[in-house]
TrEMBL record:
GO MF annotation list: sequence-specific DNA binding
The entry's keywords: DNA-binding, Transcription, Transcription regulation
InterPro entries named in the record: ArsR-like_HTH, AsnC-type_HTH_dom, HTH-Siroheme_Decarb, TRASH_dom, TRASH_HVO_1752, Tscrpt_reg_AsnC-like, WH-like_DNA-bd_sf, WH_DNA-bd_sf
Domain HTH asnC-type: 2-65
Protein name: Putative AsnC family transcriptional regulator
Pfam (any one): TRASH_HVO_1752_C
Length: 196
C-alpha cells in the first residue's frame, strides 16, 4: 500500500523524472538514500515501469503528426493494437470499450491509411479516420487525491502490507499473499511446460 510520501514522490517524478533524490528528499522530509529506496520499491512493485524521454517531435520535423481512429471488429482489437504498438512513428496506442484503436503518430507519409494497412491486417478494420494534429500535450499528473492500490494477479484482492511481488518472465506481478503467488507460479509453469 502506498502512503502519502510515495504519492508525493510519484508526483515530483512525474513533473521531472530527472529531479535529484536530494531535492525530492527535501520536499518529502527524507534523506536521498531513503528516497532511492522508495523509488526502488515503486519500481519493484511495477508502479514505476520506466523513466522515459518526452520528445517534441515537431522540433525534429519527422513525419506528419496524426491522430488515427480505427473501428475494429471485436476479435481483431488485440491484433491491431499489437501491430500498431510496434510500428515506427507511433507514440501512443489506446483501445476503447467500443472496439476502437486510437493512435497518435508521426506518419512517414501523408497517405496515412496506406501506411497503416501496409503494417496491419485490414480484415478486422471496419473504418479508419485520420486527423492532422496541430499540437499535443501529455499531462500526466499524480495528486494527493490519487488512490493507488495494487491488485493481486491471482485472486483480484487488494495487495496490502503482507503482499509480495515476483518478476515472472520480465514482468513484475503483485500478489496479496504467498499462497496466491505459489498458485500463480505453479499455473504459469504448467502452461509453459505444456507449450514445450
Amino acid at each position: 500500500m502506498l502512503d502519502d510520501t510515495d504519492v508525493e514522490i510519484l508526483r515530483l517524478l512525474t513533473e521531472d523524472a530527472r529531479r535529484p533524490y536530494s531535492e525530492i528528499g527535501e520536499r518529502v522530509d527524507l534523506s536521498p538514500p531513503a528516497v532511492s529506496d522508495r523509488v526502488s520499491k515503486l519500481q519493484n512493485h511495477g508502479i514505476i515501469r520506466r523513466f522515459t524521454l518526452d520528445l517534441d517531435r515537431s522540433q525534429l520535423r519527422q513525419g506528419t503528426p496524426v491522430l488515427v481512429t480505427l473501428s475494429v471488429a471485436p476479435d481483431g482489437v488485440e491484433r491491431v493494437r499489437e501491430a500498431l504498438s510496434g510500428l515506427d512513428g507511433v507514440e501512443h496506442v489506446f483501445t476503447t470499450a467500443g472496439g476502437q484503436v486510437v493512435i497518435t503518430a508521426h506518419a512517414p507519409t501523408t497517405d496515412v491509411a496506406s501506411w497503416v494497412f501496409e503494417h496491419v491486417d485490414s480484415d478486422p478494420i471496419r473504418e479508419i479516420d485520420v486527423e492532422l494534429l496541430t499540437g499535443a500535450d501529455w499531462n500526466l499528473q499524480v495528486d494527493g487525491d490519487t488512490d493507488f492500490a495494487l491488485t493481486c494477479v491471482e485472486c483480484g484482492n487488494e495487495v496490502g502490507a503482507d503482499g509480495v511481488t515476483r518478476r515472472i518472465d520480465g514482468d513484475v506481478k503483485p500478489f496479496c499473499c504467498g499462497s496466491c503467488e505459489r498458485l500463480y507460479v505453479q499455473r504459469y509453469e504448467d502452461i509453459a511446460e505444456g507449450a514445450d
